[in-house]
Fold each of these.
Amino acid sequence: MNRLTTLTAGLLFASSALTATPALAHDYTKGDLKIDHPWSRPTPPGTPMGVGYMSISNTGGSDIVLVGARTPRAERVSIHESSMQDGVMRMAPVKGGLDIPAGETVELKPHSFHLMLENLGSPLRENEAIPLTLNFEGAEDMKVELTVAPLDGQTMMNTQNMDHSGQGMDHSDD
């Protein structure tokens, strides 16, 4: 190989290694569980709640249940589901945990299942990594990091359509 070809090949290798690193660092595998792209949203100052999103894949032959999570950044982490009912977005805790059936993937994403980081000690900031331990029934606990991703101009939820009556947002002890 001539010098230019060697240099070009080296740059392509380095470039692919750099682009692959974040993806690899942001996927976690332990036993039959795979966690892909755990992330959160930045929170404005004074906002006591944050969110956690990810996909959880169960590659095993037995069902697994996500029963909880914890982080040093919040007093409590709970599992919630958002749903649209009569034109109003409602949020409620998931009782008994979130089933991850054998051979399937469950998405925690906006307007669906998600983690609520309750009573944050300080705001979540863009590009910050939030340590999080996921607790499972049928599998070992798993440590991941939520990467705080930019809002890209969109609000986390449309507050005009959110149920503020408290009926759909029970944050009390389950």
Note: The helical segments are 3-25.
Amino acid sequence: MTVPKRHHYVPQMILNGFTDADGWLHWCRHREASDKVHRARPAEVFHKNHLYSTLSASGIKDPAMERALAALESEAVGVIQAILESVRQGEVPILSKAQTQLWYMFFLMQWRRTPEAQLSCTSDAEASRMMDDILDELRIVAPHRLDEIAAFGTPEAKARTIRNVRVQSLIGLRANVMGVLERRGIGIIRITRPNKQFIIGSRPVVKLTSPGQTDLNDPKVEMWLPIAADVAVGVGQGDGGISLFHTQSDSPIRQLNLAIAKQSGMIAAGSPTLVRSIANAR
């Protein structure tokens, strides 16, 4: 069986909704060179080789997590299409309980799975220091196994352990967070002005908070994931249902785009002008 190498942390089926009329994405690494906008096909961006493969001590890569994520995406694409078809007709989507649960799983996974999201929780340097502390304790409680402990303390072994822990941490979805999503329900924003668009970022799920208001249980705290250039889906107001908002105003669109860009090292859209505008925002 062929081992998948190129692992997209933003699914291609999402990226396809942001291309221009010819199927191109216009992108830039705005923290490095905000004036350099490139173009690429969705398959060529927002990926990292073997990102979700665990690595054995002998160097064998196991892409089980990548296959699991691909299976989730294959199931979720039908839900996303159902949402897009309904809202573009001006209708609130009607989703089954199974479809709703599938959306929550996809949304939560997309929030957690990107490299930038994982590093925001624990940096590689922090993880390395934590491992050093654990190894120091092991040397005290198990002095008869110093050689074995030393083998775990090499730079290569530590990097492998940190990599594997990051991958395996995606397995368990937190029941309390799923419960919050279920209580909040689903909110949807649709842009009705043809010349306005959402961007997509390398960390595409954004949480909007105010000082002292960061708990997702608070209806004032927002979370959004653009699933196409004209549609963003996030948490609802707290009734457990699905709400649809149409907007022609530039303010909420730009606010969301700027928030995504602030937390993402790479941004993309169907318009190079929009990418430059967001990348060079002051």
Note: The longest strand covers residues 222-228.
